[in-house]
Fold this protein.
Amino acid sequence: MRKSIILSLLCLPLGMAAQNPVVRNQFSADPTARVFNNKVYIYPSHDIPAPEGQRQDWFCMADYHVFSSANLTDWEDHGVIITQNNVPWVKPDSYAMWAPDCVCRDGKYYFYFPAAPKEGRGFAIGVATASQPEGPFVCEQEPIKGVMGIDPCVLVDDDGQSYIYWSGMGIRGARLKQNMKELDGEAVVMEGLPDGFKEGPYAFKQGGWYYLTFPWVRVEKGTETLAYAMSKSPLGPWEFKGIIMAEHANGCWTNHHSITQYNGQWYLFYHHNDYSPSMDKRRSVCIDRLSFNADGTIVEVKPTLRGVGINQATDQIEVDRYSTSSEDVTIQYHDTLNTFRGWYAELSKKGSFLCYNDVDFSGVNDAYLTANVKANANTQLLIREKDGKGKVIAKIDIVCVSEGQYRRDQRGQWLHVTAPLQYVPKGVTNICITCEGEGACVDWIQFKNRQSYFKPVGAQPSSPDANGFIRRWTLLEPIDKPNRSNTVFTDTYLREHFNKEYFAQQFSILPKDGQKVKAGKQTLTWHTLESHAYNVKLFRFSEKLQKQVYGVLFWAVTTIDCPEEIKDVRLAVGSNSASMWWLNGEEALLLSGDRRMVEDDGMSPRVTLKKGRNVLRGAIINGPGMSDFCVRFLDDKNQPVTNYTIINNK
């Protein structure tokens, strides 16, 4: 068992997801949620597939995990805290570690759990203690005397008196001694509860009322609801009030829960068999908001896919966990054999929509949209703010069938697509995805902040970096120059196409930031920028401007001011793909062929940087690949030349 626990921990992701269910890498059920140290801790049971020799159609649980979150969105798995074969009184390999609870008293944490004892039949309830809510927990040698049953719950009242509740042939309760490990008197049956099967009691206090909540089968051969009763006394008698949550729509037999207030909001923690639709003994923890009427009664909770918590727009948003949708929207498993891979949403036709609540855009800065989508025909999705008629944030064009030079057919395949943002909402808002054409499927969307590759320049001159690389350039937006392949970039081809005039004064212009030129039918703008990296990333320059990135020709100009003449230097260039360079109007270097960006990939003959102004021009061409370049001058000892400045053109 120790080996299996270690392997389980090694496989854990760093965190859980925001939407329902909240635990995404394992089954989890019977959640007790408690607030400790300004965090919410969930203590669930842990369903597992039954090993050989165990009953295959029944509950099977060997250990307990604990999960915590400060925002109900990002959940951390603290790993296994107790396992069946490390508890002295538990029958080995009994796989009956059912619904637990945990409370804090005087700075000490008490974990209560049921299990099958080594001696006798049925269930006993044990206690483990720790100094931290995530453990390590130390188990008592024996279970609590006088308690035979399952699903313990402990209420620490305002006066410090503690009560324990459990189920098994009805629901019982009793006072606990100050040591939290022994009964203080006889157990009593909770009176006033409705007829029918009941289990899983969870007691809490709110507004001067005690609430006893419990799973309840209200019709013969039915499945469990979540129900409750109220009293002015912690042990009753109770007055039955009604339903907190109705039976699961898919017929999942059990539900089990807790109710907790956090940061002023009440929440219902419960379970459902989301990841195991054909086997309802493998459940998953979900959370939804809960509220009270003025008289203290509980407003019935409708289960949601969305759950609770605020999603950062910069995180992946799994929109299959939507808040609302048109009736035709469905969700499908990615893999019915490995359901932990999750779901996707299918918007079947034009007009289909889904809305996802509580997305925080405060961290979005210079971003674009990325999404995982698929379709059987070219179509378009719109991301809108608030609802189906809201302001358009982005347009997702799904091109699964394309014609022409780069023809492809990707119908029915998942495509990772990007789209520019037309609008960025402020703060926390709801988003809505609408289908504007043929149907499409959406796995997730994400608003990704661009890495900063350039910064604007001021009036002050720049200098080469410590390795001599020139980072300040005036770049022209890309000229459309279709090239099917980079293999055509021979010396002859490049000289012909680089020396062709694309815009006026191509080899004499000293461009200024913001200056425009006409290149064929294109009106293009010059941008003076400082590269954060030694290699100037033309692909990212073009992408940020939402310009064409493939099959283009880039022009780059920089003006060098030398305090004195510098002789016998060589221009050293690396470029992706081919490029040509001119110094003071004379060709200095040609890099031909299908290249990758390698520093000093090409070296010019020895040249002279004259005193005063020197103009360096470059033309970089690409086909279906990315483009960047790096440029510096090396002296006769192959050391970088740095004793000059780069100035802006006036």
